[in-house]
Design goal:
The complex is a heterodimer of chains A (129) and B (477).
Chain A lengths: L1 E5 L6 H14 L12 H8 L3 H13 L3 E4 L3 E4 L7 H20 L4 H13 L9
Antiparallel strand pairs in A: 2-3
Chain B lengths: L1 H22 L11 E2 L2 E2 L8 H29 L6 H37 L8 E5 H4 L2 H4 L7 H20 L4 H30 L9 H40 L5 H34 L27 E3 L7 E3 L6 H31 L4 E5 L2 E6 L2 E6 L3 E7 L7 E8 L3 E8 L3 E8 L5 E6 L2 E5 L6 H10 L2
Parallel strand pairs in B: 12-14
Antiparallel strand pairs in B: 1-2, 4-5, 6-7, 7-8, 9-13, 10-11, 11-12, 13-14
Classes of the chains: A mainly alpha (129), B alpha+beta (477).
Chain lengths: 129, 477
């Protein structure tokens, strides 16, 4: 998977990195069980501080998208059933997005169509092994 | 001697110009990796009249410059047969001219092309984007050869210090001979250490994203890192082996080491250079082949950071990045704190050393050209002095004194001193004579031979009767 970070964006690097990895897992570009680069290597290749990458990995771990093993490093977790905490987060974010769409004059059908199209691009892949 | 130096320098020159010529690009103005003359421009603008004109002119000057320097580098080597010191000065001036010309012909057209790009608005504002290919980064450590391959030869090379100490104890050697031996040890070990440091540095260099296709990125990064680290490992082993063999020979033969063994050492050192350069050179072709098969190339327009002709990006944490003009090379990031100062110091030291060597060689040539042999006696201590070399002894140390018509017939090796068409001055060593010092004008007789305990002194004067008077002074005491 290719991660793109915009150094001129207002979004913090660790958030961009987290979002890109989550999208990558969702689209199946990163398969369950696949290794992610080590914190040091990712920081080296991106030319950013290793603390930034470490922060991203800790967030992804806390969210259940990756697991970190001392020997194997960071690996992508298999797909899990929805968790209560995630549902709350999803509802809060969708509420904000719905409000913004509504205020910009978007119709419900168009909003749902975009959501559906986005959701269709997601094909989380299970481990090949 | 002259023929050996001629061959060594000729071989070096035959490598230097073609390597620079081809590694910086035989076709300087061609469009590769989305760039012309190191500047990213849209593919549809490659045939723009201004671009064609600039790249055509650059290509022409580049070819002429390389051809002239290739011929000059070969011709300069023939100066070896006339005067080695003059050759050395001319060669150093030539190499400075070549490096300066090389960078002038790269940087100036690059700046012109960048100006052309700005004037035409061919700017892509993607330069702030950083890309990482996770499949490449995740296996990064496996892309290169492990640095641990350097350790066995490094330890073996370091261990030859015992052999040098043993050689010193086994043979009665001049301090200058020991200095040479320790210098060779230092260079053998130092080069192995430098290659290890470079190896670790190459492993830490960021992986590049060339394409949207991860397989292409993986293959291209593997070829680059593997080529460099293999080259450094082979070169380290051959360099270490060359010194180990020489140190063993020193231990067995002592300072009278056969000249052909130095030839063998030189060949191995040349082989080490070839072992470094060949795999690195091959990476260029291999990477180009991989990238040619790419249907989804990815270029980051970071020309703003290269606009002066060197890399200057304060937001990039890397100190070394792949050179834009020479894909075999790496370039410093002058935007990092300390790099400018470090490189400035490096160039300053190199400049001072070069100028210092030139001045020193000139003064040395002058001192040998105007050399006078001075014989003095003060308070029972006798001394000979010429061109900064001297030998002191007292009367009790003299075993025998004689006047001879010519030097004993044998080959003398100069260990520290000067040998010109006029004089032989300094420390020498003969197979039969052993350690000796010479204060001799060529073609003048007789020669005063003073046998001391463990050393012989040969001296003569250009003034008629003076050598005989020295002989009488020593004989009568």
């Amino acid at each position: 998977m290719i991660i793109s970070l915009d150094m001129s964006s207002d979004t913090p690097i660790y958030v961009q990195l987290r979002n890109q990895i989550v999208k990558g897992i969702g689209k199946g570009e990163l398969k369950a069980g696949e290794s992610l680069p080590s914190v040091r290597q990712m920081a080296q290749d991106a030319g950013i501080n290793s603390m930034t990458v470490n922060k991203t990995y800790q967030i992804l771990k806390a969210e259940g998208f990756i697991e970190i093993d001392r020997r194997k490093g960071a690996t992508v977790c298999p797909v899990r059933q929805g968790e209560g905490a995630f549902r709350e987060k999803l509802e809060a974010e969708l509420e904000l997005l719905s409000a913004e769409a509504c205020l910009k004059g978007m119709h419900k059908d168009e909003f749902l169509r975009i959501c559906e199209e986005m959701f269709k691009t997601m094909h989380p892949a299970e481990s090949e092994g | 001697m002259e023929i050996t130096m001629f061959i060594i320098f000729l071989l070096c020159d035959l490598l230097i110009v073609p390597i620079c010529w081809f590694s910086f690009g035989k076709n300087m103005g061609e469009y590769k990796e989305g760039m012309v003359l190191g500047v990213h421009i849209p593919s549809e603008c490659v045939h723009h009249p201004d671009v064609s004109s600039l790249s055509g002119k650059t290509q022409k000057s580049w070819a002429i410059f390389q051809k002239i320097n290739f011929a000059a580098s070969i011709l300069i080597c023939f100066l070896c047969f006339w005067d080695f010191l003059i050759f050395l000065i001319v060669w150093m001036i030539w190499i400075m001219e070549y490096v300066a010309g090389l960078y002038y012909l790269i940087i100036i057209p690059h700046r012109k092309m960048y100006r052309l790009k700005l004037e035409n608005g061919w700017v892509d504002y993607s330069r702030k984007m950083i890309r990482i290919d996770t499949s490449v980064s995740a296996v990064s450590e496996k892309l290169a050869l492990s640095w641990k391959w350097h350790l066995p030869i490094l330890f073996l090379t370091a261990a030859t210090a015992f052999l040098v100490v043993a050689t010193e104890q086994k043979y009665d050697m001049f301090p200058s001979e020991m200095t040479l031996l320790w210098a060779l040890y230092g260079s053998g070990l130092g080069v192995c250490l430098m290659f290890l440091a470079l190896h670790i540095g190459i492993m830490r260099i960021a992986n590049r994203v060339y394409s949207e296709n991860s397989e292409i990125n993986l293959a291209a990064n593997r070829v680059t890192k593997r080529g460099w680290t293999e080259g450094l490992t082979y070169a380290s082993w051959i360099n270490g082996a060359a010194w180990i063999l020489l140190s063993i020979c020193y231990y067995y033969f002592g300072p009278d080491i056969p000249v052909w063994l130095y030839g063998g050492y030189t060949i191995l050192i040349t082989a080490a250079a070839a072992a470094l350069l060949i795999p690195i050179g091959m990476t260029v072709g291999k990477r180009r082949k991989i990238l040619e098969s790419d249907r989804e190339p990815y270029y980051t327009d970071d020309d703003e950071y290269w606009k002066y002709g060197w890399y200057n990006n304060p937001d990039d944490r890397h100190i070394l990045v792949q050179d834009r003009f020479n894909s075999m090379n790496y370039a410093f990031n002058y935007g990092r704190p300390g790099v400018k100062v470090g490189v400035g110091i490096l160039w300053g030291v190199l400049g001072v050393i070069t100028i210092g060597v030139i001045i020193w060689v000139c003064l040395l040539m002058d001192s040998f050209d105007k050399a006078e042999v001075i014989f003095t006696e003060y308070d029972g201590i006798y001394s000979f002095e010429a061109a900064g070399y001297d030998s002191e002894f007292n009367i009790d140390e003299i075993v025998s004194v004689a006047l001879i018509d010519e030097l004993p017939e044998e080959d003398y090796t100069r260990t520290n001193g000067g040998s010109t068409d006029k004089v032989n001055i300094g420390h020498f060593r003969g197979k039969e004579t052993g350690k000796c010092m010479m204060f001799l004008f060529k073609g003048y007789t007789p020669i005063l031979e003073i046998q001391l305990d463990g050393m012989t002194i040969y001296a003569n004067s250009k003034d008629p009767g003076e050598t005989e008077s020295w002989y009488e002074a020593l004989k009568n005491n």
